[in-house]
Design goal:
alpha+beta; FAD/NAD(P)-binding domain; binds dihydroflavine-adenine dinucleotide; five-stranded parallel beta sheet; Helicase, Ruva Protein, domain 3; 23 strands; about 400 residues
Length: about 400
Amino acid sequence: MHAFDAVVIGAGAAGLFCAGVAGQRGVKVLLLDHGAKVAEKIRISGGGRCNFTNRDLDPRAPQRHFLGANPHFCRSALSRFTPADFIALVQRHGIPFHEKHKGQLFGDRSSEDFIRMLLAECEAGGVQHWQPCGVSGVRQAGHPGAPLYEIETERGVVRAPRLVIATGGLSVPKIGATDFGYRIAGQFGLRVVPPRPALVPLTFDGGDWAPYAQLAGLSLPVRMGTGDRKAAIAFDEDLLFTHRGLSGPAVLQISSYWQPGSPVRIDLAPGAELAAALRQAKALSRKRLGNELAAFVPARLADAWVQRDAAWQRPIAEVPDKALAALAHALSGWELVPSGTEGWRKAEVTAGGIDTRELSSQTMEAARQPGLHFIGEVVDVTGWLGGYNFQWAWSSGWACAQALAA
Ligand code: FDA
């Protein structure tokens, strides 16, 4: 029987960071993961450069960049370990980085820099690291006053008074995602908000999509929101047409808010006074409407768009004002109902997860299950695209590590 102060299951972003911080505070930590490779998601993140945090994150207003049944839950951890704190660590390790867009910070070289940094932090904390090492079961061996967990692993049974679940969500199963965290929650009677794919491309029924499938590969800046006109949420980002539907940052962002069966709303020419501009062009131009439209949206899109109505397939001077207004309206308020998403295979994250009502926002410990902590993506905290999810992994891991060391 092996004995530790704390066992962390899952050597991804949250687990590695938590283990290293706790180890350096004197906690005897075992970190284990069923995968052969450490931190696969960090490796593939940010196109291989890891968008490791976001300077725009405001810990006082987490609901601006995080979703979940209680978006305020993450405030405590995010304000105690901030993007600035993680940036300071990255700088101590001499990792060069740059800001790309809207506060997003990326490594200059490769995600491997960040993995090496986290492993070095674990080593500095004397963390024992078993990998690959599967876990077949967890038992409670103590009592509420003196919690103790027995973890059955491929390398034998391990005992510890503190167990940290950092096994992430369900996205990208081929690199090791499992429902382990939700099963452990279920075993101990903790509620789970049903997980669903988020930051994921949206798909459309083949027939409905046929007119747009020819646009696959086309990217353009748009303003995209949910169909609910009263909802404040909308993103000014790029949209990408694919063979099966829509992708790109605008779509990934809105997918986290999208409810099945409801429409999404897209302004394909944001910032343009399209109706007025087309009326003006009508007075002066001999070109076809599609050619005039190409001044506002990419020509491929303009071509495909005018195919939707015979009235639009003429020289602009011959198009009735009403038809011009209808075109402007349709293009700036394109409403369409996705049939689904590309699912777990393509989702960058999992929305839903361990119900935050079960956890202390200070320590990430389950209120009804002393000694059991959940950190990172397995918790019902989901960040926007742009480094927010890693920051949640660092902040929740740090908060938990303080509790392990207390
Ligand atoms: P994470 O998934 O990192 O780690 C979980 C670990 O648990 C894995 O190592 C897994 O093998 C292990 N595990 C699972 N089940 C187990 C079991 N039964 N037994 C033992 N071990 C088990 N975010 C961001 O902020 N910036 C970015 O640039 C990106 N880019 C990005 C790209 C792509 C393609 C994806 C899929 C995701 C991103 N993300 C991102 C999201 C980000 O990767 C994610 O939110 C964090 O990795 C979550 O960290 P966790 O430690 O919670 O889980």
